[in-house]
Amino acid sequence: MKALFRSGVTAIAVLLCVVTVIPGTARADNPIVQTIYTADPAPLVHNGRVYLYTGHDEDGSTYFTMKEWRVWSSADLVNWTDHGSPMSVATFTWASADAWAGQAVYRNGKFYWYVPVKDRASGQMAIGVGVSNSPTGPFTDAIGHPLVRNGEIDPTVFIDDNGQAYLYWGNPNLWYVRLNADMISYSGSPTKIPLTTAGFGTRTGDPNRPTLYEEGPWVYKRNGLYYNVFAAKCCSEFIGYSTAPGPTGPWTYRGTIMPTQGGSFTNHPGVIDFNGGSYFFYHNGALPGGGGFTRSVAVEKFTYNADGTIPAINMTTTGAPRVGTLNPYVRQEAETIAWGSGVETEPAGEGGMNVGWIENGDHIKVKGVAFGSGATSFSARVASATSGGRIELRLDGVNGTPVGTCTVPGTGGWQTWTTVTCPVTGATGTHDLYFKYTGGSGYLFNANWWQFTGGSSIQIGVT
To answer: 359 catalytic, yes or no?
Structure first.
């Protein structure tokens, strides 16, 4: 990791917070996170934003080596803000390892994040619950012990229209319990959902697993019909789904959503509606160095068929289309990224996250920036323990039309922040904005936030 060699960062911060650069091309927008490897997407729509909860595959993993969960958010489904890691295995004092696939839901003014971890006492996988007053955390252990423990994984939670919540999970079986209104306890005992071939399709070649169901259930309701979308038939997995007239069945297998593809032998679904569209989240191995243990989250837009069935969805490098525009005349976090090359993120001393380990030629793209009648100046919050560098502002390409250049001085430390401002000309209308970082050798500076002034922007679909 190149970040290990930069001075001025504590050893603890390096070990816990640093993420390794994953280079990529500026032409692609999918996967949606390029600064680290991410897996097991769980999207949540809340107050006009999509909050995306993911796992974090460690660099160079040869197994599911996962120590923390991460949170991202977006108002337009193309520019994603990195909120860091608000929960880890260490959040659960009774857990020893394995920050695997979970899901967060909102109820009663709180956010509950259900995750599988290894229970230290028994050595079994168990389901824990994190809780927070904010969708971005920090999360704390809600109950101080497992909610359920039977050695199985991949929890999903669904709250029905009548207020009854259900927790589903399982591999190799599929279980559910009825959660109480407090979301941290349940009534009755865990119940197995019958895995019939009518309900979950027919698997061949494995007498111990006659159905296609493998893991990763995602349960939701649409137009009175209950959907169970799941990873099917390891390995390699595809995504299939079943439907039912009620939350516990009986289920009927409906077919394939996403065929086996993408360079990862696992996949994991998440489905939401947002701003009038439907979106399918998944993971693959598409980034450089990617594979079955170094995965990356991606998203596609889709439209349900008239009868409520889900069409076949293939992985793309373009991803979902932009919803609305981004307002450059309010403060934007530097870690809000549609595509980045050569950059990393870390917790900022001023709060939140910052972009760091910037070297000459690195860049970030932000899509759909609405400059309106025209910007006249640009400001950025920056820090540098070296001699700094430059932020070149370019439109529609990393070598596109230049509209301004800000010089970043040395500030005496990587977390010693100052604000720089420079004039801008020619930034009108709506464009993709590229921050091209230039300077000498080595690390140049950090960036915390940015903002333009001088123009007006009409915003659509942005909060």
So the answer is: no
Name the residue among 428, 431, 430 with its Cα closest to residue 454.
428
**By CB neighbour count within 10 A (0-12 exposed, 13-18 middle, 19+ buried), where does 314 fall?**
exposed
- HEC per residue, the chain: CHHHHCCCCCHHHHHHHCCCCCCCCCCCCCCCCCCCEEEEEEEEEECCEEEEEEEEECCCCCCCCCCEEEEEEECCCCCEEECCCCEEHHHCCCEEECCCCCEEEEECCEEEEEEEEEECCCCCEEEEEEEECCCCCCCEECCCCCCEECCCCCCEEEECCCCCEEEEECCCCCEEEEECCCCCCEEEEEEECCCCHHHHCECCCCCCCCECEEEEEEEEEECCEEEEEEEECCCCCEEEEEEECCCCCCCEEEEEEECCCCCCCCCCCEEEEECCEEEEEEEECCCCCCECCECEEEEEEECCCCCCCCCCCCCCCCCCCCCCCECCCCCEECCEECEEECCEEEECCCCCEEEECCCCCCEEEEEEEECCCCCCEEEEEEEECCCCEEEEEEECCCCCEEEEEEEECCCCEEEEEEEEEEECCCCCCEEEEEEEEECCCCCCCEEEEEEEECCCCCCCCCC
Active-site choice (57, 214, 333, 362)? 214
- Cβ 447 vs Cβ 358: under 8 Å: yes
Q: What are phi and psi of 199, to 5 degrees?
A: -85, -30
Q: What is the pLDDT of residues 75-118, one digit of tens each?
A: 999 999 999 999 999 999 999 999 999 999 999 999 999 999 99
Report the C-alpha gap between 82 and 338 in whole angstroms: 11
End-to-end CA distance of the chain: give it in Å, rounded: 36
Q: Are 315 and 287 contacting, i.e. CB atoms less than 8 angstroms apart? A: no
Q: What is the maximal distance between C-alpha atoms in the chain?
A: 69
What is the token pair recorded at 278? 């439907």
Report how far residue 19's alpha carbon sits from residue 1's, in angstroms, rounded to the nearest whole number: 8
Model pLDDT, residue 456: 62
The active-site residue, picked from 40, 76, 215, 335, is 40
Assess whether 215 carries a catalytic annotation.
no
Q: Per residue in 333-353, pLDDT tens?
A: 999 999 999 999 999 999 999
Q: Residue 374, exposed/middle/buried by CB under 10 A (0-12, 13-18, 19+)?
A: middle
Contact 147, 137 (CB under 8 A): no
Q: How far apart are CA 42 and CA 133, in angstroms?
A: 18
The token pair that represents 291 in the structure block: 């594979």
